[in-house]
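Support request, priority: normal
Reporter: lab tech (M.K.)
Component: structure prediction queue

Hi team, I submitted a job for Uroporphyrinogen-III synthase from Rugamonas aquatica yesterday, and the status page still shows it as pending. I've pasted the exact input below so you can check whether something in the sequence is tripping the parser. The sequence length should be 267 residues. Please let me know if I need to resubmit or if it's stuck on your end.
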Amino acid sequence: MTGAVVITRPLAQALPLAARVSALGRQVELLPLLEIEALPEPAALLAALSRLCAPQPGYKMVAFVSPNAIDAAFAHIQQWPAGVRLAVLGEGSRAALAAHGVTPETVDIVSPADSAHSDSEHLLQTLDLAALNGQPVLIVRGESGRELMADGLRAAGAVVDVVPAYRRSVPHLTPQLAATLRRLLLQQNDWIITSSEALRGLCALLAQLDADYPDAAQQNPVVLMQQQHLIIPHARIAETANNLGFSRLTLTGSGDERLLAALQSRL
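Reply from support: The job had stalled in the queue. We restarted it manually and it finished. Here are the results:
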C-alpha cells in the first residue's frame, strides 16, 4: 500500500471526500491547490440571475461549469425558475445542485453521457443544439475559463451570456506550504487531482520551492512529483498530466464513488 491520499481540491469540497477516504482506513492530507474567492463586485452575476429569476425567465438554459459556480450562484437564488433547463459537466455538480434542492425529479438536468469525459466537448455533444437555436443561454463560471462551450453554443445559434461567479487562485508559497510539500515528496502517495489548473499550479509551486527553499539533501521537487501516483477523474486532466511529465496515472471517470473505488483497488 502507498502512503497518504493527498486531496488537492478547494477546502470546502475536499472535506466530504476526506471523511470518506478516512473511512477506508487511509491517511488523508489536505492540500488545497486552488483557493476560491467570491467576487468583490458580482454585478454581472446578479444582473444575469435577476433576468433568470424574472416572472418570465430570461434564459432557456443555464450551464454551470463547476460546483463552485453552482454554490456562488445559488447564494442569490431562492427557487429555481420553472421550465429552465440546467447543464453541468459531472457528478460533483449534480451533487452540488442536489445540496441546493435541485434534482432531476423537478428540473431537467443535462450532463455528458460518458462520465469518463465530463468536459465541455462532451456536454456539447449531449445537448440538443438545434433546439437552442435563437434561444438565450447563460453560462456561469469562474473569472477565467475555457471559451469552448460558449463558442459551441453560439455556433449552434444560441444567444449566450457568460458571467463570472467566483475567482480562483493558486496559494502563495509560504514557509509552511514549502515544508508540507517537502514532507509529502519524501514518500509515495496517491494524489487526487481534479483540475488541470491545480496541477499546473502545483508544478509552478514546486519549481518555486526549489528556487526559494533549496534543500541539497532532496532531489528536484518537480522530478519527485512526477514519480507520484495521480488519481484523475477526467481525460483532459490526464492529458495535462502527461504533457507535464507524469506517467503514473489512474483515470477514473467523474464522481467521488469512482475516485474511492480507485483507492480501494490500491489497498
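Residues 65 and 141 are 5 Å apart (CA to CA). The first strand starts at residue 5 and ends at 7. Let us know if anything else looks off. Ticket resolved.
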